């Protein structure tokens, strides 16, 4: 059984498709898309994203795919209306995927009704769910962010390649 222990760069012919819920679990048995059994033994707190690559200590790699799952996608052409919807959903601590064209959350009929009352169109569909990482999450472009809260507060930022994340 392959044991994936860390993130890596590059690409892989092997893929592993997981729901958002499973992409948050750092230790689990999985089945690769080719049917081969494997295990994830990652550092706790890692959330896997579409396109992430994992490696074994022996150098085998796998690329992560976001599974299609039941989501509600809210479309809005008006930025203020979209901001209001994000505010009301965020006020309910809903995990959101936010883009310029839509807001997406895991399907919930109560939240769907809220968005409809705000005048938004809600589409229930199966699509990959890639929510915002949160205030202290890994945005995929900042590595090694360190804080020193002593006098002389400093920040250290190392940037990955300028790849864009189109979520």
Characterization of this structure:
The chain has 167 residues and is mainly beta. The chain folds into two domains: 2-66, HSP40/DNAj peptide-binding domain, CATH 2.60.260; 68-128, Alpha-Beta Plaits (2-Layer Sandwich), CATH 3.30.70. It has helices at 20-23, 79-90, 109-117; strands spanning 2-8, 15-18, 27-31, 37-41, 53-56, 61-66, 68-75, 97-98, 102-106, 121-128, 142-147, 155-159. The protein has a six-stranded mixed beta sheet. Strands 8-9-7-10 form a four-stranded antiparallel beta sheet. Strand 5 and strand 6 (61-66) form a beta hairpin. It is elongated, with a radius of gyration of 18 Å. It starts with a strand and ends in an 8-residue tail after the last strand. The relative contact order is 0.16. The model is unreliable at 139-167 (pLDDT under 50).
What's the gist of this structure?
This protein has helices at residues 20-23, 79-90, 109-117, and strands at residues 2-8, 15-18, 27-31, 37-41, 53-56, 61-66, 68-75, 97-98, 102-106, 121-128, 142-147, 155-159. The chain is mostly beta strands.
Number of domains: 2
CATH fold assignment of the largest domain: HSP40/DNAj peptide-binding domain
Q: Number of DSSP helices?
A: 3
Highest CATH level, the class of the largest domain: Mainly Beta
Spatial sequence of strands, sheet with the most strands? 2-6-5-1-4-3
Topology:
Blueprint: E1 2-8, E2 15-18, H1 20-23, E3 27-31, E4 37-41, E5 53-56, E6 61-66, E7 68-75, H2 79-90, E8 97-98, E9 102-106, H3 109-117, E10 121-128, E11 142-147, E12 155-159
Parallel strand pairs: 1-4, 2-6
Antiparallel strand pairs: 1-5, 3-4, 5-6, 7-9, 7-10, 8-9, 11-12
């Amino acid at each position: 059984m392959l044991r994936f222990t860390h993130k890596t760069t590059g690409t892989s012919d092997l893929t592993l498709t997981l729901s958002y819920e499973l992409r948050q679990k750092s230790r689990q048995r999985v089945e690769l898309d080719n049917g081969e059994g494997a295990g994830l033994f990652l550092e706790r707190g890692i959330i896997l994203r579409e396109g992430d690559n994992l490696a074994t200590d022996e150098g085998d790699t796998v690329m992560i795919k976001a599974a299609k799952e039941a989501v509600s996608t809210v479309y809005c052409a008006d930025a203020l209306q979209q901001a209001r919807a994000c505010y009301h959903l965020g006020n309910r601590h809903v995990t959101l995927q936010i883009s310029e064209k839509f807001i997406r959350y895991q399907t919930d009929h109560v939240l769907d009704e809220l968005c409809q009352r705000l005048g938004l169109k809600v589409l229930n569909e199966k699509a990959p769910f890639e929510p915002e990482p949160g205030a202290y999450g890994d945005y995929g472009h900042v590595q090694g962010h360190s804080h020193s809260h002593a006098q002389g507060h400093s920040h250290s930022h190392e940037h990955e390649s300028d790849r864009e994340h189109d979520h």
